[in-house]
Structures are given as C-alpha cells and as structure tokens.
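Workshop exercise sheet. Pairs work together: one partner reads the sequence aloud, the other fills in the structure field after running the prediction. Swap roles for the next sheet.
Pair: D.N. / O.F.
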Amino acid sequence: MQGNASSCSRVGWQASLNLQFRRDPERTVLARAAHVGPLTVQRPFYPEGETCHLYLLHPPGGIVGGDELDIEVTLEAGSHALITMPGASKFYRSAGAEGRLSQRMTVGENATLEWLPQDTIFFPAARARLSTRFQLTSGSRLLAWELFCLGRPVNGVAFSEGEIVNRLEVWLDDAPLLIERLALADGDLSPVANQPWVGTLLFYPADEAMLETVRGALAPLESYAGATLTDALMSVRFLSDDNLICQRAMRTVWQLMRPALLHKDPVPPRIWLT
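Structure field:
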C-alpha cells in the first residue's frame, strides 16, 4: 500500500486514530474522533439504547512492511462503547520492513469497553509487530478479544516464513494484571501447538462462578481451549485448525459473559449478521 506525501513521512502509511467517549445523560457519545491517514470510524449507532456501537475501519488494502498504525481509545467515567470492525485486518508479505500496530485503551471509573475486532490475518512472509494495552481502574469493566489467523489455512497455505511479535498487556492502575508476548518466526508454530488459529478473550472483573461457567462451555473443545482467573482477570485461550470452531466458541463465551458482567443481553453487532 502506497501513501501520499502528506501521510507517508517514511516508507508506508503513518496512520493514527484517537477516540474519546463521554457519558451524556441519556447515552454514551463519541466526543472525539481525530484521525490521520487511512484509519477512521463509521458513524456511531445505538441498537440497544445507551451503549455506543462503533465500527473501526482499517486501511482497505491491508498493512504492509513500513506501515505504522496507532490507535488510542479513552472511555470517560460511566461510558460504554462496543467497538468492532466490518472485516478482517490483514498483514501482507514484506520484503524486510515491519508493519506495526499499536493500540492503547484507557477505561475510566464505571466505564465499560467491549473490544471485539474481527480476525487478523498474517500472510506468509509478513513481518508484523503488534502491541495492545488495556488500562483499567478498579471500577472498569472489560470484555475484549483478539483472533489471529496464521497463513491462509483455508487454502492450505501455512505461515511458513515471516515474523510476528505480539505484546498484550492489561493494567489495573499502576499494577500489571497481564503482560505476555508471543513471538513466531521462520515457520515455527510450536508456541501455538502448530495451530493456525489463535484466540484470546479477556474479562474483568470476573469471579470463580464465571470461570466455572466458561470452562463448562469450553469442555467440548477439550485441550484446544482453556480459561484461567488471576486477580479478577479471566483469560480464555483457543487454538484451532478451523476458524468456524474458534469464532463460534469465542462468541458463545461472550454471550455468556456479557449478561454476567454487564447485566445486559448479548446483542451482537449488526455487522456480525451480514
């Protein structure tokens, strides 16, 4: 993907998006949406009243070596936003330069973030570096996931070359609840049991009863899924060779946890139904 002179100071796109949500008397509003380059959002809508549903639009041509995307989301006290995407994000093959994606979400007191992007596809020979950080307070609520597709398994194409480095962090004030790093290179997928689909869900604040409910839902997947609870943060992991199994299981868990955490019906984003 080629940038123009105004948005491409180096090789590739230099794009940024800054979103800020505020609670008004009747609903959550998108108070700020500043963007540079091919990162933008569609107009918010409200299929369930007060909660703001928003679609984030990645560059339509995908991400290539040299592209740098920076996303910052802030939810002020009492606000509630559900953010998803109309399609998958794609990292294409690179001749050497990295494609970078940095995401930082700050969730204020009594605010709720549902971060539910579509899958991220890494084509063979892609070089990708991703960083996602959720900054919470004791009164924040978080329902988030990420789903990675390594290669093009539907077409029988493995992630046989390239490099992926993914860093995922969850912080409660100044204390880390989760810091993890996944590094894949040179076709070695042993860190993910040689499976092409890798999913993670995060829920805060969770408890033992929620954990047991989720583990019951995961039982049919046997060793390819698991859930843990540490300091009220529930982490759910999936490995699969079938995207439909992974996506169905992740949505099932979200449908269980949304009423438990938010006391709201699991109203799916409309884009999931198309």
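Discussion prompt: The first strand starts at residue 14 and ends at 23. What would you look at next?
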